[in-house]
Amino acid sequence: MTEEKGPSGSTPEPGADQEIHYCYRCGSLLKHSREWCGTCGADQFYTCRSCGRVFNKALHRCPECGNRRRRSSHRSGISRVSTTPAAAEWFRHNRRTLFYVTAGVLGGILVGAIVKTLASHSGPPNDQGYGITSLMYWLDPFIRAGKTVYRAILGVSRAVLNWIVLLILNNFKTTVLAFLGGVAGFVLAMKDRNRRRRARKHRAHREGGEDAEDTRTEAE
């Protein structure tokens, strides 16, 4: 069978010392590695399944035992080039930077969507007719979003305050008793804390005295 050869007419073996090598399949110059072609993605060498000899696929048969090589699926040139050692090394060294950049882009999109939604509740966009070169043109969405948030907080605060006032007025006696119970609980808690503090000091003083007595006994 006629062997496929590169433009130079040679079929490089794995151990051959040549500076220029070509793909056995498409004849392209092997720029990235002698092991595979960056153009068509074809592997250049084959391991014989009979004797384990590694030989160039252009030979079609093992030069050691004569066994014919079998065709196997090969990766596309695009997949090969996308995973070259240089590209993989670049992604490995810059993966944190890429992560933060991606997170920043997604965060910016999310914040923009939130600001736009909040601003829509405080009037139409750019109702004052600011030009794109005006600072207010860019600040207007944030100002309107801030007004929406302020009104929401103010409304919730008023609702909570009104609820507390009504609760106190409708249950005045219960509120007074709850207040007195809270004061009594606070007083009892302070007394208990002081008692525990005195107990710790007494225990530490007693242990210190016992240690001093043991030291004197050992010295005698």
Care to describe what's here?
The chain folds into 3 domains: 1-84, no CATH class; 96-160, no CATH class; 171-220. Strands 1-2 form a two-stranded antiparallel sheet. It contains 5 helices and 2 strands. It is an all-alpha fold. Residues 1-12 and 73-82 have low confidence and may be disordered. It has helices spanning 77-82, 85-93, 95-119, 135-170, 172-219; strands spanning 45-47, 54-56. Helices cover 56% and strands 3% of the residues. β1 (45-47) and β2 form a beta hairpin. α3 packs across α4 (135-170).
Briefly, what is this?
By secondary structure, the protein is an all-alpha fold.
Poorly predicted segments:
1-12, 73-82
Order of helices and strands: EEHHHHH
Number of helical regions: 5
Q: What is the global morphology? A: flat
Helical amount: 55-70%
Global structural class: mainly alpha
Please provide the count of β strands: 2
What Rg do the Cα atoms give? 41 Å
Distance between the termini: 107 Å
Approximately what portion of the residues adopt beta-strand conformation?
under 5%
Count of separate structural domains: 3
* Biggest sheet details: 2 strands, antiparallel
The largest beta-sheet arranges its strands as: 1-2
Mean pLDDT: 78
